[in-house]
Write a structure and sequence with these properties.
14 helices; about 30% helix; binds magnesium ion; binds zinc ion; binds adenosine-5'-triphosphate
Length: about 500
């Protein structure tokens, strides 16, 4: 993508220009074009790509009107601020201080390959856009503060991302088989959810994608948790923590989820006041009509202040935010199983396999790149042992790399240890005989420096801090196991049957 930036700005000073001051300013402009704006520009870059002050500067009383133009180097707004820094001491000698910068017209043009049906997205600050002959021209309305906040750079990056998304739209995920267990004994061809409902192990709850798990189902959940503790997180030295389950925006801003999680969030609101009299009519409305006055409740709440736990690890990070971790406490290894995760899965809901409220053990670790990758490898080994020798599942694992990760250059070798190539996610999938399809029942992710960077976490040695996480979905483990092994516990692999015990029926419905 070939970039051009053009910006008109008025630098307002505390006093009008005298002829001497004007002369000094003109000299400064020449100097800036020759030297100041060239600083840091790699050798061999075409002059036309570097920011410069173009046209004739205009002096109007105490305002200096300038036009800045650039390609990708010393972008127009960077040139503006460099110039401001330079001009202040020089004109200070004439008792002129910079009061304000008024930004006039700002345009960005992007020349390159646009997908056929590319539509310019609705973005803040963009007040006009034209796409013709492979050049997209954007007109911006921005203040100097917006420019200091690097708004044009973010807009360019975002438009580039949208172009990539439109180009690679079809290939949403790269999928590459890593391991395949081969066939395992199958005792069942039914849908495990329907079979559990039939036996009274679970019942659908009133909310969408939500189940009430009876004792029999919970026996399975707890047995799986026990296996995870005994075979995986215990031996690998993980300690239990409790992560919050109400996630405020500031956490998702740092974890990156604020970039796109909106369609799946369960949003959280707070009452405008906890004064009972403020809510009395709402309560009375229900007492009289038997209906909850939802329309009016909307007017009495604040927020949303955030959402319910979506991915389990982001709310851990404020625990280490802004800290430098001592070398000898690394790698940090923790896990959380303290509550539910919530996702608005919309039409995707299916059985207990894809629900809006689910239970998951989240395993999380951080350390150097080498430590992070090594733990992921040891987890892979431990999981393999569990699926092969304890659950006896028919399963496979695959390396999945969202295309945007590949595009962002997040995959590829940055570190000397070769760890960079390992950034990404491994999905674990189990075969579901009833639907002859594969179900992702857990994953292991090596997230690189994404979270430590977002939450500003450092390591004493100065080594880059990395992290990884693994989400073990209990509904998915249950669905996978029962789909292959059935509900008769005599047919289950011995270790599992022993841990679960005979399914206990408490309720007799007449
Ligand atoms: P899918 O592609 O199936 O939607 P995902 O990629 O959204 O899964 P992740 O965000 O990687 O899932 O979540 C990690 C784990 O959390 C999954 O492997 C699964 O065990 C569990 N999980 C995610 N979404 C759900 C859901 N809607 N219902 C039950 N478990 C879920
Ligand atoms: Zn995670
Ligand atoms: Mg999903």
């Amino acid at each position: 993508m070939q970039l051009r930036f053009r910006l008109e700005a008025g630098l307002r000073f505390s006093a009008p220009f005298t002829p001497e001051a004007e002369l000094a300013a003109r000299a400064l402009i020449d100097e800036a074009n020759r030297v100041l704006f060239m600083r840091g520009v790699p050798k061999g870059v075409d002059q036309a790509d570097v920011g410069r002050i173009t046209g004739t500067p205009e002096f109007r009383e105490n305002v200096l009107l300038l036009t800045f133009e650039s390609g990708a180097y010393t972008r127009a707004h960077d040139a503006l601020f460099r110039f401001r820094k330079q001009v202040a001491p020089t004109l200070g000698k004439f008792r002129m201080g910079i009061r304000e910068i008024d930004v006039g017209a700002y345009t960005i043009s992007m020349k390159g390959d646009f997908p056929e049906d590319f539509r310019v997205p609705n973005l803040p600050f963009i007040t006009g856009s034209v796409l013709s002959d492979g050049t997209l021209t954007l007109s911006l309305t921005v203040s100097a503060a917006d420019l200091e906040n690097r708004i044009p750079d973010r807009l360019v990056r975002l438009v580039e991302e949208k172009i990539e998304a439109a180009t690679y739209g079809g290939k949403s995920e790269h999928w590459e088989l890593v391991f395949e267990s081969g066939k395992k004994p199958r005792h069942f061809t039914e849908d495990p959810t329907a079979a559990m409902v039939e036996r009274g192990w679970i019942k659908h709850a009133p909310a969408r994608g939500q189940w009430i798990f009876g004792p029999q189902a919970v026996q399975l959940f707890r047995a799986f948790e026990q296996i995870v503790v005994d075979e995986i997180i215990g031996p690998l030295g993980f300690s239990e923590m409790v992560f919050p389950k109400m996630v405020p925006w500031e956490v998702w801003m740092r974890s990156g989820h604020a970039k796109g999680v909106y369609p799946e969030i369960y949003y959280i609101c707070t009452p405008k006041t906890r004064d009972a009299s403020y809510w009395e009519d709402i309560a009375d409305y229900f007492k009289v009509t038997g209906e909850v006055w939802i329309e009016e409740i909307r007017n009495r709440i604040d927020g949303p202040i955030g959402g319910m736990c979506y991915a389990q690890c982001p709310p851990f990070w404020p625990f280490v935010q802004g800290e430098t971790l001592a070398n000898d406490c690394l790698p940090i290894r923790v896990f959380d199983r303290s509550g539910t995760s919530h996702r608005y899965e919309s039409g995707g809901i299916h059985g207990i396999e894809r629900v809006d409220e689910f239970h998951r053990i989240e395993v999380l670790w951080l350390g150097t790149a080498e430590q992070t990758v090594e733990i992921a490898d040891r987890l892979h080994e431990a999981y393999t042992h569990v699926f092969e020798n304890i659950l006896e599942l028919e399963w496979r694992s695959a390396q999945v790399t969202p295309w945007f990760m590949a595009q962002e250059g997040m995959v590829g070798d940055q570190a000397a240890c070769g760890c960079g190539e390992r950034i990404g996610t491994t999905d674990y999938e189990a075969f579901l005989p009833y639907s002859e399809s594969w179900l992702e029942f857990q994953n292991v992710s090596i997230n690189g420096d994404k979270y430590p960077k977002g939450f500003n976490v450092k390591i004493q040695s100065g080594a880059e801090c990395w992290s990884g996480c693994s989400g073990i979905g209990l509904e998915r483990w249950t669905a996978a196991f029962l789909a292959q092994k059935g509900l008769d516990y005599e047919k289950w692999p011995e270790k599992v049957a022993k841990l679960v015990g005979e399914p206990k029926n408490l309720f007799t419905f007449l």
